[in-house]
Write a structure and sequence with these properties.
Radius of gyration: 20 Å
Largest sheet: none
CATH architecture: Up-down Bundle
Number of helices: 19
Number of strands: 0
Oligomer: single chain
Helix content: over 70%
Strand content: under 5%
Length: 383
């Protein structure tokens, strides 16, 4: 029965629904994505889920195609009036990476060796590309037995990072709501959101969705030509289309397709736990734990120092640095969960979401999409 694609999809979907229920009743203290990822791992280990359940369901294959359109959607959440203030998010995220890099490369070699430390630097700074660079280099120099270390770090850093980010963001959100009122900038941003798109054709859901996919395809082609990650082009396209009044704000929500696309992408994310065995965890847990402790601590310390330096509340800045652990869509999901759990009215929920989502997304792009690739390439080149 499980071999039926629809049944397999429903079983995976049940994890997400359970995660949402737990997130709602715990007021985002236990994030949905953490529940889904750990639940998937445990159910696979105990045989409740077959090992090929992701292959049986067709949604993960679809989810891999939807990263580009979803990143374009993220770009349409960023009016220029908000983006101008986000240089601090860039500084904080880079400071967090420097902190993580410093602690991992200083402490881990004293307990294990430099190769072990280097194998964890790429994943802890975020990103699938950084993980691939790390595993390819380990294979090239004959350290294939060590590949499981970066794989385990990449798998477990999201379940560890999500509750930490939620903890800090919830406290910042409570502080923000209690100490601030609606500002003129927020009023201006709301008016900017209400500006209609230039062409009536782009109000049609099918044409709007088609245009999003065309831009995602164009970003993929540009990535092939330039070597830059395609998500950077997707983000740029989204920002330009919003501020050029060609797309509405939150374009996929306007086309009534955002929730379904996010579910498909989350299936891909929880699939990163696949292939990990209990024996892998037992054999490598000391090295993985030390790298995670040093990496998470370095991110938090770097984020704290930079937050103080640029004049942001540490509980706002530290989660930005910690986005290296979760990336997209985890950063967006946690912003939604925190904003709905912190307030009891729609006005404050929207204010909190708008306050935290842009710096969190920018922090994620700086670390996961750009800096992690540079860090992984540099450190692995030292082996």
């Amino acid at each position: 029965m499980i071999e039926e694609p629809l049944v397999a999809t429903v079983m995976l979907f049940a994890l997400l629904a359970l995660g949402e229920v737990i997130s709602i009743y715990s007021r985002a203290r236990i994030p949905m994505l953490m529940t889904a990822m750990i639940g998937f791992l445990l159910l696979t280990w105990t045989g409740v889920f077959p090992e090929n359940i992701l292959e049986l369901s067709t949604l993960p294959a679809l989810g891999a195609l939807l990263i580009g359109p979803l990143i374009i959607h993220m770009g349409t959440l960023m009016p220029l009036s908000i983006l101008k203030k986000q240089w601090r998010a860039v500084v904080i995220s880079l400071s967090g990476l420097i902190g993580a890099l410093s602690l991992v490369l200083l402490i881990v070699p004293m307990v294990f060796d430099f190769e072990t430390a280097a194998s964890g630097v790429g994943p802890i700074s975020g990103g699938v590309v950084a993980l691939l660079i790390t595993t390819e280099k380990l294979t090239e120099i004959g350290l294939t037995a060590m590949i499981v270390v970066p794989v385990l770090i990449a798998a477990f850093q999201t379940p560890i990072g999500m509750p930490l980010i939620a903890f800090f963001l919830k406290r910042y959100a409570g502080h923000y709501v209690s100490t601030t009122k609606v500002t003129e900038d927020e009023i201006a941003a709301q008016k900017e959101e209400e500006v209609p798109v230039r062409f009536n054709l782009l109000k049609n859901n099918i044409i709007l969705l088609f245009t999003v996919f065309v831009l995602a395809a164009a970003a993929t082609v540009l990535s092939e030509w330039t070597g830059l990650h395609f998500t950077l082009f997707c983000l740029l396209f989204g920002i330009l289309m919003l501020n050029g009044r060609l797309f509405p704000q939150g374009v996929l929500e306007k086309s009534n397709s955002f929730s379904f696309m996010m579910v498909a992408l989350i299936f891909v994310i929880i699939g990163t736990m696949g292939g990990i065995t209990p024996q892998d965890v037992i054999n490598n847990i000391p090295a993985v734990l030390l790298i995670l402790v040093c990496g998470v601590g370095g991110l938090a310390i770097g984020g704290f120092i930079a937050s103080k330096a640029v004049g942001w509340h540490p509980f706002k800045g530290m989660p930005i640095a910690l986005t290296a652990l979760v990336g997209f869509p985890g950063d967006y999901i946690i912003c939604e969960e925190v904003s709905r759990s912190t307030t009891d009215n729609q006005v404050d929920e929207t204010r909190v979401f708008n306050e935290i989502v842009t710096p969190m997304l920018i922090g994620g792009f700086v670390t996961v999409t750009v800096a992690s690739v540079v860090v992984a390439s540099f450190v692995m080149g030292m082996l």
